[in-house]
Amino acid sequence: MAQQLIHDFWSKPDLEIGLSFSYILERLIYTYKDWGSDPKVFDVFFQVLVELGLLDEGKKLFDKILNYGLIISVDSLNIYLSKLRDHLGGFWRAVKVFFELPDVGSCWNTASYNIIIHSLCKLGKIKEAHRLLLQLGLRGCIPDVVTYSTIIDGYCHMGRLQMVLRIIDEMQSKALKPNHYTYSSVIYLLCEIGKVVEAEKALREMLNQGILSDSVVYTTLIDGFCKLGNIAFAYKLLNECVEVSMAF
C-alpha cells in the first residue's frame, strides 16, 4: 500500500522532481531520526524512484542514507542494476556500480552477478564474465542455470564450441539442467560452424527434456539445412514449426 501511494505521487505529470525529492527525503530522515520510523521506508522510496526511471535521484537517496548507517536491500539494488543496464549505454554504468558498492557495505547475491555477467557479455567481455562466474563460490554465491547459460551464449557467439561443451559439463555436474536459452545458443553455434545435423540432434534432445522450442530455433535450423542444400529436410522442419506454433 505504501509503495503504491508513493508511486502514484511520483507519477504525477506536473511534479517538480528536484524540489519534491528533497522535501520528501528530508521528511523521511526527520521521522527516522526523531521518531524511530521503520528504515524500510527508504527501501520502498528507492524502489519507486528506480521503477519510474529516476535513477539519479535513487543514487542520491542511497548516498544520503549511508550517512545514517543504512543500506538499501540487495533486491532493490538489483532492480537498480537492471534499470541501469537497460538504459542507453548503461552496461558500463551497471558494471561500475556493481564493483563500487561493496566498498560501502552492500552484499550482492546470485541475481546481482547474473545482471553483471549479462552486461559484460553484451559488452563483449566474455572472459571477464567467465572470471566473475568462477569467483561466485568464493563470494558466498551459487551460480544457477541463468549464470551458466549467459556465459554459454557469450562463448557461442565467439564460436568457442569446446569451451561451451566444457561449461555445459560443469553445469550438469552441479545438477543444473540446460534450459531453452542454453539449447538455443548451442543450436545457433552448431549451425554457424556447419554442424547442422548435430544442431538438429540438440533440438531433439531439448524436446525430449520437455523444453519447448520456438520459431527462432526452427528458423536457425531451417536456414542451416537450406545452406547444406537439404531442402526436403528444411521443409520438414518448417512443417514441424507450423504445427508447434498452431498448438499454442
TrEMBL record:
<dbReference type="InterPro" id="IPR002885">
    <property type="entry name" value="PPR_rpt"/>
</dbReference>
<dbReference type="Pfam" id="PF12854">
    <property type="entry name" value="PPR_1"/>
</dbReference>
<feature type="repeat" description="PPR">
    <location>
        <begin position="109"/>
        <end position="143"/>
    </location>
</feature>
<protein>
    <recommendedName>
        <fullName>Pentacotripeptide-repeat region of PRORP domain-containing protein</fullName>
    </recommendedName>
</protein>
<feature type="repeat" description="PPR">
    <location>
        <begin position="214"/>
        <end position="248"/>
    </location>
</feature>
<dbReference type="Pfam" id="PF13041">
    <property type="entry name" value="PPR_2"/>
</dbReference>
<feature type="repeat" description="PPR">
    <location>
        <begin position="179"/>
        <end position="213"/>
    </location>
</feature>
<dbReference type="InterPro" id="IPR011990">
    <property type="entry name" value="TPR-like_helical_dom_sf"/>
</dbReference>
<keyword id="KW-0677">Repeat</keyword>
<feature type="repeat" description="PPR">
    <location>
        <begin position="144"/>
        <end position="178"/>
    </location>
</feature>
<comment type="similarity">
    <text>Belongs to the PPR family. P subfamily.</text>
</comment>
